[in-house]
């Protein structure tokens, strides 16, 4: 089935997302594991991805867990340090596709404020042909509605979309809708998939 557009997740596909690494560097792995076991940081982050206020949500969590208050507030105050770099090969693939006239879309779980912060640090995130951010849409992957919104807004039929994401449950939800998919681990295999599909040459995908 020919592919008419490529859909990228953002975190851990185009930019690094490493909160555990950040906390390990600050308080050590053992205390980080204790913190993450006792405090629902990732659950609160999912609420932010749904559109909850960033600072308010994190600071309320800190107030609820005073023993960890300082460390919890880092999730807001030091957020960009948890996104320490672009995944440059993936960025090159995105730009190579666009240079050939192949539409590139974003489908990402992201908060409103955190997405703006990420775009400020990584301007290429503003370069998609279409962007679906969960906080703007009030629905998150792997819920079916966020995939349906992308289909509706872009007008591309599911079977003509190729989607890459690092989370198996998000890939499974896309596949159920008839999307073509690639579970992202590192850029190399995805580059090979783009070559296999005839979207890029080996030189363009390097």
UniProtKB/TrEMBL annotation:
Pfam families the UniProt entry points to: Hydrolase
Top-rank lineage group of the source organism: Bacteria
SUPFAM superfamilies given in the database record: HAD-like
InterPro entries reported for this sequence: HAD-like_sf (IPR036412), HAD-SF_hydro_IA (IPR006439), HAD_sf (IPR023214), PGP-like_dom2 (IPR023198)
Coiled-coil stretches: none
PANTHER family given in the database record: ALPHA-D-GLUCOSE 1-PHOSPHATE PHOSPHATASE (PTHR43611), FLAVIN MONONUCLEOTIDE HYDROLASE 1, CHLOROPLATIC (PTHR43611:SF3)
Protein name: Haloacid dehalogenase
Protein species of origin: Leisingera methylohalidivorans DSM 14336
């Amino acid at each position: 089935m020919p592919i008419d557009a490529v859909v990228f997740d953002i975190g851990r596909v185009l930019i690094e997302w490493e909160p555990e690494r950040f906390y390990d560097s600050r308080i050590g792995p053992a205390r980080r594991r204790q913190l993450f076991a006792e405090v629902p940081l990732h659950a609160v982050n999912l609420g932010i991805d749904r559109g909850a206020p960033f600072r308010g949500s994190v600071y309320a969590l800190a107030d609820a867990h005073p023993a960890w208050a300082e460390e919890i507030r880092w999730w807001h105050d030091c957020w960009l340090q948890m996104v320490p770099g672009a995944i440059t090969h993936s960025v090159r693939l995105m730009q190579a596709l666009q240079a050939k006239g192949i539409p590139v879309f974003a489908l990402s779980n992201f908060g409103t404020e955190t997405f703006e912060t990420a775009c400020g640090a990584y301007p290429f995130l503003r370069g998609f042909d279409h962007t679906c951010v969960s906080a703007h849409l009030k629905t998150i992957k792997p819920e079916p509605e966020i995939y349906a919104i992308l289909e509706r807004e872009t007008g591309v039929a599911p079977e003509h979309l190729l989607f890459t994401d690092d989370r198996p449950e998000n890939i499974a939800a896309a596949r159920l809708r008839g999307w073509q998919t690639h579970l992202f681990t590192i850029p190399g295999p995805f580059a090979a998939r783009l070559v296999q599909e005839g979207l890029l040459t080996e030189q363009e995908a390097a």
